[in-house]
Amino acid sequence: MKPLPASVRRTLLRLAREEIGDQQTRLEFAALARLRLRSSRARLSGREAKLVRLLLGGHNRPPNRDLVLRLHRRFIELESVAQQQESLGRACSQLAAAEGAFGLLELLLPARLRKEEVADAREVVARLVKCESPWWMVLVKITSTCFWAGINAVRELTSTFLHKSPGR
Amino acid sequence: MINAKTALLQALMTDDGYGLELIERVKDLTGGKTTLGQGTIYPALRDLERDGFVESYEGETVPERAGRPRIYYRITGEGRRAAFEERKAASGLFGLAWAKLALG
Questions:
Q1: Nearest to B20 among A114, A120, A163 (CB)
Q2: Is 0.80 topped by the overall pTM?
């Protein structure tokens, strides 16, 4: 028995909250919940199970097929919106973290490194976020950029100093 | 095994490129055997520029870079000569080694 994904559970609860007031829709939702439970063999949390039991209780008549299909479509629609929102939120927080770290880093680096290394790192982070990479990959990229940009800044300073020194 | 500067000069022989693009190009050209990291590629490019083997110019601006342009590198005549010499030296070395191996 696999648990329902968080976004599906949220959508299920939202649908239930929206529809619970209306007796007819309660019947439809009960049918829908039964349908979902049967198709996904999903395990619900205590609160959801209680809600589904409440909705299913005493409504064993065959449901209105058209209405169930309509609700089912809406459920899928809401499910996809919830997933999109979740991934958008994740992307936004990853980009904000990267932006914060790179913004601080840029205060300490010379212009050439800002334009090249930090901007390239920003591009990599944007690519990682776009292909929905896990958090740790973005974090590794941010950390390694801070580390290497720092080292390279010191190297750059040393090299500039050595090139300018009259002994060379 | 391959020196970063050598790899970059060979990669720039085909076309101009910027940091990220050159990392990918070197990886492709060596069949994944050589991967240049952030700690290697940028100092190597700047050293090559200081030595006059490559020159840099600003390219297009993309929104992902927070309005900053890409810094492209182009190989100079001197760079081409150096790349050719390195290639000749490497093929001479490998040719000799393989010939000795074949002769037993």
A1: A120
A2: no
CATH topology of domain B4-103: Arc Repressor Mutant, subunit A (1.10.10)
* pLDDT tens across the length of chain B (104 residues): 578 899 999 999 999 999 999 999 999 988 888 888 888 999 999 999 999 999 999 998 888 888 889 999 999 999 999 988 888 887 777 777 777 777 76
Q: d(Cα A50, Cα A36) in Å, to the nearest integer?
A: 16
Query: Do the Cβ atoms of A143 and A97 come closer than 8 Å?
Result: no
- One-letter identity of residue A21: G
Q: If contacts are CB pairs under 8 Å, which of residues 30-89 in chain A contact chain B?
A: none
Tell me if ipTM is over 0.90: no
| Domain ranges within chain A, ordered by starting residue | 6-63, 90-164
Question: Å from A79 to nearest chain B CA?
Answer: 29
Task: Tell me the domain boundaries of chain B.
Answer: 4-103
Look at A115 and B71 and tell me if their CB atoms are within 8 Å: yes
